[in-house]
Design brief:
It contains 10 helices and 11 strands. It is globular. The chain has 2 domains: 84 residues, Rossmann fold (3-Layer(aba) Sandwich), CATH 3.40.50; 124 residues, NAD(P)-binding Rossmann-like Domain (Rossmann fold), CATH 3.40.50. The longest helix is centred in the first third of the chain and has 21 residues. A hairpin with a 2-residue loop joins strand 9 and strand 10. By secondary structure, it is an alpha/beta fold. The strands form 3 sheets. It has a 6-stranded parallel β-sheet with strand order 1-11-8-7-5-6. Strands 3-2-4 form a 3-stranded parallel β-sheet, sandwiched between helices. The structure holds NADPH dihydro-nicotinamide-adenine-dinucleotide phosphate. The site of NADPH dihydro-nicotinamide-adenine-dinucleotide phosphate has 26 residues, from helix 10.
């Protein structure tokens, strides 16, 4: 890595998601020529405003790309049994290629039981334990969308990860752990940090690639960043009506060589990767 001389270059999720979508268009056309339209069904239980907005953007992108989509809206009072019945129906519906249950679920419903009930072959979020296991042994699987988007961004800047030190701040099942697995698969030396990590700034400062998936607005400042590092900000935090990342952009832009903005960064990739996984599911099911 060179010493930092100027402001960080941006890794634009807006541009890269468009690039990905045009790659996906080709695959959608190939499927259409065989009479196959990939279909994503999203289950939304309750009235969480952020969830509603995520579900809307998923349906919008399906439409843009020519995928079929369906949103099943359920009252927050839905029971676990009712939800399981719907998932079992979707599992056996041949026209559905992807089944996604929008999280968080209403109180009283077990996230584990619900996610485990989705057919792993339709688990386009990649959260089913069978798919998580596949990822950990490096076997083909549905890679969770946000981590897959992070890797696409690193690839887009030709970041050769072999032998690099990658530090992931956050160890959630949906972001931190799978990102770490993917970085490891690309031969990075990976450190995973969390709320009990001692002297987090010093650990982060040794990173060639720093991924922030914490959920704490602007926590990562220049003090955490090695000059010339690649910094990927996964955070989406709502502060006074605005969306900010886990990285303090104005501070870190003077230390990092590459930086993802928020908004317009990883978040854009996540939805596009959901399309990618849904298309992949349709392709797998209809393999010649
Ligand atoms: P979680 O709350 O599940 O996990 C947060 C992680 O950060 C935990 O492992 C936690 O540690 C760690 N952490 C919390 N505080 C600190 C701290 N002070 N120092 C070090 N580590 C800390 O969050 P998610 O992984 O679901 O999401 C992370 C962020 O990414 C959020 O802002 C979320 O909105 C965003 N997000 C963005 C997506 C996108 O498309 N761009 C998609 C999904 C999430 P511990 O395990 O010890 O509690």
């Amino acid at each position: 890595m060179r010493m930092k001389m100027s402001e960080a270059k941006l890794i634009s999720g807006a541009d890269l998601s468009q690039k990905l979508l045009s790659e996906l268009e080709v695959r959608v056309k190939d499927l259409a020529a065989r009479g196959i339209v990939p279909k994503l069904t999203v289950i939304l239980a309750g009235e969480d405003p952020a969830s509603k907005s995520y579900v809307r953007s998923k349906a919008k992108m399906c439409k843009q790309l020519g995928l079929a989509s369906e949103i099943i809206r359920l009252d927050a009072a839905v029971t676990q049994g009712e939800l399981l019945t719907i998932i079992h129906r979707l599992n056996s519906d041949d026209s559905v290629h992807g089944v996604l249950v929008q999280l968080p679920l209403p109180k009283g419903i077990s996230e584990d039981i619900i996610l485990n009930s989705i057919d792993p072959a339709k688990d386009v979020d990649g959260f089913h334990p069978a798919n998580v296991g596949q990822l950990s042994i490096g076997a083909p699987t549905f890679v969770p969308c946000t981590p897959k988007g992070v890797m696409y961004m690193l690839d887009a800047i030709n970041c050769d990860l072999a032998g690099k030190h990658a530090v992931v701040v956050g160890r959630s099942n949906i972001v931190g752990k799978p990102v770490a697995q993917l970085l490891l698969a690309k031969h990075a030396t990976v450190t995973i940090c969390h709320s009990r990590t001692r002297d987090l700034p010093s650990v982060c400062k040794t990173a060639d690639v720093l991924v922030a998936a914490v959920g704490r607005p602007k926590m990562i400042t220049a003090e955490y960043v090695k000059p010339g590092a690649v910094v990927i900000d996964v955070g989406i935090n709502r502060v006074d009506g605005a969306i900010v990342g886990d990285v303090d952009f104005d501070s870190v832009k003077n230390a990092a060589e590459w930086l993802t903005p928020v908004p317009g960064g990883v978040g854009k990739m996540t939805v596009a990767m959901l399309m990618s996984n849904t298309i992949e599911s349709a392709e797998r099911k209809n393999k010649a």
